Amino acid sequence: MTNETQTSNCNDKLCPFHGQISLRGRNFQGKVIKKFPKRVVIEFDRTLYVQKYERYSKRKTKLHARLPDCLKDEINIGDFIEIAECRPISKIIHFIAIKKITGGKE
Ligand SMILES: [Zn+2]
Questions:
Q1: Which is more confident, 5 or 64?
Q2: Could you report the per-residue pLDDT of 41-51, keeping only the tens digit for each?
Q3: 71 alpha carbon to ligand 1 midpoint, in Å?
Q4: pLDDT of 62 higher than 70
Q5: 39-50 and 80-86 as β-strands: parallel, antiparallel, unpaired?
Q6: Fewer CB in 10 Å around end: N or C, the chain?
């Protein structure tokens, strides 16, 4: 018998905790800049080495991540969250939000 202590009214098939999907690949952390039903867009900085100038240049990366049902109330715009790579769910989504790190109020 499985004893589910988690607040699970999560019927999301593509939830990494309650669903079928498995996570593999890379993890990223970033700030939520947009929120849609079942999807968030996060943004984070990455540094790119520019050989010509021997300096690092700061670039921004945006990634679309799926927002599982059980996290949709917890994660809001401005929060710092962690996402993990999974199989491509749709054309632009191949990450899933897995946890909130800090709530942002910037
Ligand atoms: Zn869930």
A1: 64
A2: 999 999 999 99
A3: 7
A4: yes
A5: unpaired
A6: N
State the first-to-last Cα distance of the chain, in angstroms, to the nearest integer.
45
**13's tokens:** 């098939």
Q: What percent of the chain has pLDDT over 90?
A: 83
CA of 106 from ligand 1 middle (Å) equals: 28
**Domains of the chain, earliest start first:** 23-102 (2.40.50.1000)
- The burial class, CB within 10 Å (0-12 / 13-18 / 19+), for 75 is buried
- Look at residue 10 in the predicted model and tell me its pLDDT: 85
- How many A from CA of 11 to the centre of ligand 1? 7
Please tell me the distance between residue 72's alpha carbon and the centre of ligand 1 in angstroms: 10
* Ligand 1 geometric centre to CA of 17 (Å): 5
Q: What's the gap in Å between 69 CA and the centre of ligand 1?
A: 6
* Nearest CA among 82, 73, 81, 80 for reference residue 105: 80
Q: Give the separation between CA 6 and CA 33, rounded to whole angstroms.
A: 28
CA contacts within 13 A on the Cβ side of 92? 8
